Structure formats: structure tokens, C-alpha cells
Amino acid sequence: MKISKEIKLLVMTDFITVNLSTFLIFLIKFKTEYFITYTDHSFSELLIIAPILWLYWAAVFHIKDLYKSFYFRSAVEIALSSFSGITVGTIILYVLTTLNFSELSGKGLLLYYGILCFFVSSGRVLFKIALNNLFRKGIGLRNALIIGYNKSSKKIIREYLKGRLLGLNILGFIDDGKNNPEYQGFRTLGDLDKFEEIIKNEKVREIIISVEVKDPFLINNIILQSKDHNVFYKVVPSLEDIISGNVRTFELFGYKLLELFPDILSPFQRMLKRTFDIFVSFILLILTTPLMIVSAVMVRLDSKGDVIYKQKRVGKDFKEFTVYKFRSMKQNAEAETGAVWASKNDPRITKYGNFMRKTRIDELPQLFNVLIGNMSFVGPRPERKVFVDKFIKTIPYYYKRLHVKPGLTGWAQVKHKYDETFDDVKEKLKYDLYYIENTSLKLDFIILFYTARVVINFKGH
Predict the structure, then answer these.
(1) Distance between CA 445 and CA 443 in Å, rounded?
(2) Pair type for strands 232-235 and 206-209
(3) In 3D, which of 71, 77, 72, 108 has the Cα closest to residue 93?
(4) How far apart are CA 323 and CA 370, in angstroms?
(5) Which of 3.40.50.10860, 2.40.10.340, 3.30.565.10, 3.40.50.720 would CATH assign to domain 142-259?
(6) Residue 221, φ and ψ in degrees, nearest 5
(7) Inter-residue contact 380 to 404 (CB < 8 Å)
(8) 266-283 burial by CB neighbour count: b if 16+ within 10 A, else e?
(9) What is the four-CA torsion angle of 445, 449, 455, 458, rounded to 10 degrees?
(10) Measured distance CA(33)–CA(346) in Å, rounded
């Protein structure tokens, strides 16, 4: 997803305020008599120190998730989140400077903390004020659609007209009603059959789903039609949605909306997960090279055909990629049947292929997918487009699987048997949704432990 202009300007604001803070602490620390220093420090040193500190603070702010949209955040929340990020960064900096650069610790660091809190938080609050002023002038607005015509959607319009929602430009309603209703100047632009065309022509960025009866297939249809247009989804939730605690909500002009695709992991946790994927996949590729060479020879001796089986799968955000496996079936196994699932005692599976499936050796080439970032070690298994297109229309909430990166293994794989029927897919979706809503590094390690046990006990499918 592209970085918005808003976030780029926010980064530039932080660049100015952080460097200004660093310049001031340098002046006070080394160019006044307020602090006693034993060595002389020239401004040329500042040219080295300032970029390093800027990169450090940019990393801290990113890890603390401070570079998220200001559209629906208050000035108080912006200031408090700034204080939180600076506090964490200063504590880390205190440990580092105490161990290595004693001249920068103590009172100097405390003063630096105060200067940063003032300038960074002030800069961000002023940025928010400037952003709101631009919104009031109609500059930088994001086009939005409301799906549904009912009491909730009418309330959204009333609050919008009072000026309580800055940042959005609501274009109108999408509704399947035959009368094309209109409310306070906002008309119905079309039904769901014209939905994708409207999104494309009007460059819609926000979709607010306001339906009185929660129909998962309706949401499936909305996601499917708008998946290629970089839009954000909000839903007017029911009381049950809020109490369940399984969704992220936020205040929008007086009442809560639900975010369809919340990021459960923080930026720091995502970074750790990706670092783990890169490091471990690289090590395993080296360690398993002899085994993969032997397997390649065995696949070729066992049956005629290619050693590596390549297939297109659907990954995060509906993007297709090529997945790699050792071929465990006869060459062109689906030539006559088309795309079908493997079944227990499937005659298409070769002798060595059966062994590889039980030990998961056939999945080893997917370490390349993990290394390059198409997959993660843990996540929902990627599926073929022909099945995804079918499932998203027939299985409620299947679209949620496509918001996270697919995995080499997953909660559904260690808790349920291999997919053989449509009912198996629906059952495994429950485990995938549990993982998506409760994802954590701890859960990832639990799944990896169970996977290792499956491999050691030859219980793979």
C-alpha cells in the first residue's frame, strides 16, 4: 500500500522538530556554561550526530505506531502518543549512553527528553490543526461512500453536515432499493452491481458499511468488488460486535465504527516476525540443502517429471504469487480432472511423495517463499485462485484470510486434517479466523512447536 501524502508530511514535520531538538541540546550541553564538559565539541560533530539521532527517533516512532493516519485522531491523543514514544525512546537512549557515552547521560538526557516532548508533540498538534484547516477548505479530502440507507447512515450524514467529520468527502449512498432514496442532498449513486465502477470513477478511498442486518455474504461481495482499489473499510457495529472484543473500534463523530482489517500486531512485532522469517528461513535453507538434494534425486527416480512443482496461489491482499514444492504427485496430475483437492490414499500421489507429505519435506522449497516475503512461517495456508473465487462467494468471512500473509504452517494445519471437502474448508476457516483475531508472536511459536511434533511423528497429510 502506498504511503499517503499526509504521512510523508508528518515524517517531514518530525524531521524538523527532532533535528531542532538535537541542535538545541547540543548548544545547551556543549556551547553554554550550564553543563561542565571536559572536551570541546565542534558543530561538525553535530552533522554526524543529528542524522544518526534522526534515524533512531524515526525507527522508535515507527515501532510505536506513531505514523498512522491523523484523520480520526484528536489533538490530545496525538500529544499523548508522542509523549509515550519519546519516553520509550529516551529510556533506551539512557541505557545506551550510560554504557558508552557518559557525557550525554544524566541531566543532559533529561533536558533532551523535555525539549523533544515539547517540540515533537507541538509540531504534530500544529500539523493536525493545519490539516483540519485544509480539510475545511476542501483540500486533501478522501472520497467516501456509505453502503446502506437506514437510520445509522442518516445519522452519519447529519453529523457530517455539522462538520464533525473532517477529512472525508461523502459522495452518497450505495443501496439496492428500487426508489433511489435521497437524504439532505445526498443521493443514491447506484446499487452493488455498479459499486466497483463508482469506486473507480470517483476515486473512493473510504467505505462505510451501514446495514441493519449483518450479512457476511454482502461484506464478502463488497470486499471482492473493491479489492483492487486501495480502499479502507469501516462498519457500523452491533452491540454484540463491540462486546465480543474481537474487532478494533474507534470513535467517529460520537459513536463507534468497526475496522474490518485491524492490525493486531504492532509495527515492532511485525518487524520481529519478519526478522524471524528471514533469519530462520535462511539458516534452514543452508541446513536442509543436503536433504533437498537427496529429495530431488528421489523425486526424479520415483516418477517422471519435474522435481519442483510450481503453482500460483493467492496471498495477502489478493495478490498472486508462485509457490514452490517438491512434486509429490504424478506429472500433470490434474490434466484430466482440473483443479481438485487431494484425498486420503489419493492414487495420484507417488510413493516418495507420500513419505514427503507425512514429513512435510515437500514443503521445504517454500522456505524460498518465506525468505523473499511472499509467505511467513505461520499464517493461513495459501489457496489457488479458482478456489478463492468460489470460497469468498460461499463462505462467510473467508475474505479475512486474505488480509494476512499466508504461512508455511498455521493453526488450522495443526488442529485439523487435510482439506478433502468443502466442509473441511469451512471448518478450518474457524481456526484461521481465531489465529487472525488473536495473532501474536507467542501463538506463532506454539504453532511452530505443534508443527515440529507433527513432522517428528510422521503425521503430516
Answers:
(1) 5
(2) parallel
(3) 108
(4) 10
(5) 3.40.50.720
(6) -65, -40
(7) yes
(8) ebebbeebeebbeeebee
(9) -140
(10) 83
Q: How far apart are CA 282 and CA 288, in angstroms?
A: 10
Pairing mode, strands 142-147 and 206-209 = parallel
Mean per-residue pLDDT, 153-164: 84
Phi, psi dihedral angles at 75 (to 5 degrees): -65, -35
Instruction: Provide the mean pLDDT of the chain.
Output: 82
- What is the Cβ-side half-sphere exposure of residue 216, based on CA atoms within 13 angstroms? 10
Q: What is the pTM of this model?
A: 0.70
Say which residue the cell 484425498 belongs to: 343
DSSP state of 349: B
Least confident interval from 10-14, 323-327, 328-332, 405-409: 328-332
User: Is the predicted pLDDT of residue 79 greater than 80, yes or no?
Assistant: yes
Tell which residue, 207, 22, 246, has the closest CA to residue 120. 22
The closest of 242, 220, 244, 245 to 233, measured between CA atoms, is 220
For the chain, the structural domain boundaries read: 5-136, 142-259, 267-456
Q: Cα(312)–Cα(371) distance, rounded to whole angstroms?
A: 17
**C-alpha cell read off for 120:** 515533537
- pLDDT level of residue 21 (50, 70, 90 thresholds): very high
Q: How far apart are CA 248 and CA 246, in angstroms?
A: 7
Closest CA to 40 of 31, 28, 52: 31
pLDDT at 237 over 70: no
How would residue 243 be classed by pLDDT, with cut points 50, 70 and 90?
very low
Distance separating alpha carbons of residues 59 and 458, to the nearest angstrom: 43
At 206-225, the pLDDT tens digits run: 898 887 666 667 777 788 78
Are the beta carbons of 310 and 324 closer than 8 angstroms? Answer: yes
Residues 123, 97 contacting (CB under 8 angstroms): no
Q: Which residues pair with 378 in a beta bridge?
A: 409
E strand or H helix at 41:
none
